[in-house]
Every structure is written in structure tokens, then in C-alpha cells.
Amino acid sequence: MNAAAASAGGGKETLAASLLRYILLLILPFTVLYIFYTLHAILSSTPSCPPDRPVATTATTSASLSHLSTRNHTPSLSSSTPPPPAPVSTATTTLQHVVFGIAASARLWEKRKEYIKIWWRPNGGMRGFVWMDQPVRESSVPAGLPPIKISSDTYGFPYKNRRGHRSAIRISRIVSETFRLGLPGVRWYVMGDDDTVFLPDNLIAVLRKLDHRQPYYIGYPSESHLQNIFFSYGMAFGGGGFAISQPLAARLERMQDACIHRYPSLYGSDDRIQACMAELGVPLTRHPGFHQYDVYGDLLGLLAAHPVAPIVTLHHLDVVQPLFPDAKSRPAAVRRLFDGPIKLDPAGIMQQSICYDGANRWTVSVAWGFAVLVSRGVMSPREMEMPARTFLNWYRRADYKAHAFNTRPLVRRPCEKPSLYYLSSSRRTVARDGETTVTTYQRWRHRNDVRPPCRWKITDPDALLDTVVVLKKPDPGLWDRSPMRNCCRVLSSPKGQEGNKTMTIDVGVCKDWEFSQV
What span, in angstroms and rounded, lies between the C-alpha atoms of 449 and 446? Predict the structure, then answer.
């Protein structure tokens, strides 16, 4: 009996032990899996911010990080620090680092080459090419002009704009074709038309401030608001010229042909360039010195109130009136600028200064190297720095509200009609305090010009003043400083109907206490 009881108790202990072993065997795998996945999660997680000190990684870790999907926007350790730029010469940018691509046509070559003669420097280390649609006679290419290149055939590219011309495709590829020539030491590719007039020194002053190792697309939109609406405010208009840095030109050359195929309905060459820039993700860097000049009429109002920036280009000079009304031709008017004030002080050309002749109560506006305007009364600098409407919009039916900038009427009251004095001569002289430029401006009147009647008790400058002499020291470092208008000071002016009818003005950097005031 006791033996049976003992046997029964042993059976119960065996059953309990078996049940415990079964539970342990059931729980143990889940416990091991939990610990394994916990350790895996801890070990495989990466910090959200890079460590303060460099972290050594094995080849296996680097390989696994490089396969992370960019769609999840997970930053890898290798992408947290951009690669260093390639070693490039950091010497100051000069004309030797620039290559010009000039778009031309055989039909207009005889006329347009006169503009290129003015600004091109064959002995100044300039490099560039004139890209033609077809060959021209060798006798029509005088010495001292850029070499002629014939553009590649573009008939394989579709063109579907009914209002344009397929030559736009040829012109849009000039930057890429120039890049493929493989010229050494190029930092900037500069594009313009055969009637684009460049001011090389001012162009270099603009490019020198930018890092040529970065992608840059530099130019300016049109003066016409409607043109910018039809095309783009983010587009550099080709006639005004634009510059592309070497890295961006390399990227453009690789993809431009395929890009052009995607935009068969665009009108011109510059909007095709801008479309490819949009695909490359490079926006337009605006500089107000590039001038498309989509206007008609007289550029006086625009040039006499030029923005406080170096003037880089002029365009459409065959469309507007000659810069100087007494010049024999339009190219001759441009040459007067280049042979005179641009040679003396290119940085200061067209820069506006505003001052007042307190004795005569006149407002004086000097566009150095171009013209001087003298008006009766006191007109504020805020008004004088606004371009006067001596020109018409590119769309002739549009009024002044179709310009892409503020304008003002040339005359608000009859008494305020300005007297105009255009550049007649320029020279450099040496004084005790250094070199000084002397520019002379002579009174100019329209044929059959009649001064409007005026009841103001202010003497009309037209009756007292025939000549304006402006003294100015050359200032090659003008654009190395922050933008600021120069100041002008009236040194002497006529005092009555008799005597010397000459005004002498000094133009220069404003002193700390100086500003435009009566």
C-alpha cells in the first residue's frame, strides 16, 4: 500500500517536470528571437547627425551605406561632406580666361562687322569666334577680327514655331560648339550677337567677382515687360549677351542636343538656352549691365540714368537713334565712346551724378562720358535717377506701363525742359594730385527747336550755357566697392548774359558727409 502511494507520487512529479520543460522549450525560442532583433536594431541604427570626429568605417559598412535608397532621403556618411573642388588656378580672371561666341549671318556681315571692329582687341589677348551660317569672302574679313567658324548642320533638329526661324537652333548651340574646340584655360564662355557691343573691361569686372568653378548663367531680361511675359523673366536675352561658367558649359554640352529636341516649339535661341538651364537647375544671375534694349527711339533717357552698375553691353544700335545725334553713323557714335572716355576710365562710363547749381537754381545730371542735362528748378535725386521716356516700347502700341522698370516723362512742366550737352571731346591731364580726365560737352539743339514759354524767375540754361567741362579722376577700382553713385560739385557757372558761357563740374567719390543737395 505504501509502495503504491510512493509510486503514485513519483508519477505526479514526472508529469510536472515534463510540463515545465515543455513551457521552457516554448518560451526560449521567442526570447532568443526577441534578444536577437533588439540587438540588431540597436547595432544597425545610425545617428541623425554626423559625429564631431571622423568615424572609421570598414569596407563592408561603406558598401552597405552606398546602397541606401535616395527615395527615402536617408543621408549617408559619405554625402554629409561635399567633395573638395578640383585644384584650379585662383589667379584673377582676365580677358585671357574668356572665350567669346558671336552669332552672325553672312547676309548682315558687311554691316554688323563694323560694331565688332570697335570693341574687339586683336592685340589684347582676347579669344573668340564669329559663328556663321555659311562662308563669306575672305576679303570681307579684315585683319583684327575674330576668326570665322561655320556652324554645324542643324536640320536634324525639329523646329515648329511658325513665327520664328530655325537659325535659332544653330545660334543656341554656339556655346556647346565653342566648348568642343577644347581651348585651354577657359573660365567663361560669353555669348552675343554680331550687333552686340561689349565693354571688355567692365565685363571682366563683373566676372571677376564670381567663382568660375561654380555653375553660373549671367545676363539680364528685356527692358520690355511684354517681352519678358512672352519669353521669361528668368531668361538672359541673347542680344544683350550672357556668360556661362566653364563647369556649366561642360554640363550644357553633354545634354544640349537632347534638350533642344524636347523644345521644338520655342521661338529663339535664348529661350532654348534658358529651357536647358531650367533642366540643369541653374537660375539666371541677373546683372543690370547687360542691355538687350528692346526699345525704339532715343536711348538718352536710359543711358543718362544708367543703374549704379558697370555697363557691360549695348544692343539693337541699328534700331535706335545714333547715340550722338551729330555723329556721321551709328558705329561712328559708338567709336566716339571707345576712343575717348572708355579708353580713359571704362568703369565710370555712363555713370550718373546729380548736383545743383545753387546760384542759378539749376539741377545738373551728369552721365559721365556721354551727356549732361541741365534743368531749371530743383528736381530730387529720386526723380532724376529714374529714366526719362525718350524711347518707345518694343511693342509700339504699348504705353509706358509696358516697360519692366519705372520711368518718368522728360518734362512734367514746360519750364523743366532740360538743355542737352553731348560729349564733344575727352583727354587726360596730369596735375599735382595725379591724373585727371577732362571731358567736354557741347550744347545740342534739335532742328527747329523752340524753348517753351516759362514764367519762372529762373534763368534758362539754354541762354547762359554753351559748354560743360567735367573733371574726374580715373577710378579703376570703382566696382570693387559697394555700389554708390559718384558725387558732382559745380565749381563755376555763368553769372549773367555776358561773359564765359561755360560750367565746370568736378565728379568723384562722395565724401562721408556729402550727398546730393541744393
Answer: 5
